[in-house]
């Protein structure tokens, strides 16, 4: 009796199927009305299916808009009521909730954003205080000072690929711990960097940045995959909260990178005022510059040490979804078969995530790398580091607005990931191409504010578009066993775009930069439109269902929503990937797959008498499910054959899927 009254959450039954007219349940035989209603509720969550069992993307446009806005409206009211209750009980509890669920998962990106972008902020101060080394290169090697940009990016690329593989091999938790340790040691190196002369100091500084960059690179695949797989919580996916807010959850962690940039700029301003006798104006003493930049690196070292502790002791479930996926496929070590099959089946997706990230990073890092020249255009007679920092603070503030807008809209089924990325790319294209071909006009004193507005808007649309979306989809569109690897590879290709900008911008003028940059925005939009699937509103567990069929060599037997045209790229639709989509057959398959899970669990209970540790099942099946599966012990003849464990095992016996890296 108790189990029949349990709270099903997203899977709450919609009531008895009294008229037998639910679309997806018409062909399911041997069910009484109560059983049909309960199964309908379990397999058709009401946040993505209407009351008749029709998927939201199958609804006519008018009904689709009404359904989506209705679901989002109910969820918004629920969240507002929840916030109201929290405020009533404890006015500070919403702050604690935000810190636990948004700040802590993105703490690594906050710290790396603080340090990574501080390099460009510190450079003007070092050039002003040590001009013979950092500006005229009389006593320092110019190649080594320029290598600061190159080797930092190279370290990030190494970390993205290396830790991406480690994250899929040893688990998300160990990848996260390793990143934090590497970043902590790197910060100690940056704080203490010195040499017997100033050139030796530059060389030590450069290699410290490279080492720190390895940890930064690992943060990208680890934060994205662990955030998507609910690493801080129980490790469960396919909940209503996950379906409605998965994008917001990941981008809320990612936007901490923006807060890191903001915090760094504020702290540098405060430290310079402290060590430069309350003034931000030149000339700057060597002592003030040294104290300012070294203390600015020592501060995040404390936070990074805490991050090592938190990830070791508080994120024990970070690898749960990965290990469950491997367990189902009888894989230990690195899943080389999944990697090969991903290249075969999802190669165009890899082109989309890597290519779009490459185009974006030419924009994003190019914007950061030549912001000093941009500020010089705005303030032609300025020689104060402080004024440049204040302009940058405004730019970061505009970017933060873009980050939050992306977080709010990225899960909206009527807009979502793909359109957000395309619109962001096209907006950046326009905002750079307009001043490119009329540069003198927009940089003249009478029109400089229009130039400033376009530059700031480009920062906004970069965050409210490709920079946020690439971070999410580069993990989301791939199967669990190689998710971190694919994300790391895509991010590494992206950093090649940053490297291109870092090298190219040393050889072309500011106006020529505006000639070059816009076309990467246009190219990014085209790659996204052609090859990127739209995973907005797609149940992550459903994507794993499809991968199970693909991995077993039975792609044509999968009929579910993961191959709905809405969730396929234009290229995949042209190739006919979605031709096997069939809502009725899919429902029948899901009933039989649920039966297989129920039978396996009953067998385990009979053999062991206890629940298997880390089992990916809900607490208990409803009574109606128990009675239906008990009564219908064999498959109905009209059911589509399902993937049974023995069949999967046989299909993998000779394919080397248990290889270790």
TrEMBL record:
Main location: membrane
Subcellular location: Membrane
Coiled-coil blocks: none
Membrane topology reported for the UniProt record: Multi-pass membrane protein
GO cellular component, as recorded: membrane
Residues annotated as domain Major facilitator superfamily (MFS) profile: 101-536
Keywords noted in UniProt: Membrane, Transmembrane, Transmembrane helix
Transmembrane segments annotated in the record for this chain: 150-169, 176-194, 200-218, 253-275, 295-313, 390-410, 422-441, 453-474, 486-508, 514-532
Acidic residues biased stretches: 613-622
Pfam family of the protein (one): Sugar_tr
Annotated segments matching region Disordered: 1-20, 602-661
Regions of compositional bias (Basic and acidic residues) in chain numbering: 602-612, 644-661
Single GO molecular function: transmembrane transporter activity
Bias-annotated ranges (Polar residues): 629-639
PANTHER family: SOLUTE CARRIER FAMILY 22 MEMBER
Name recorded for this polypeptide: MFS phosphate transporter
The organism of origin for this protein: Mytilinidion resinicola
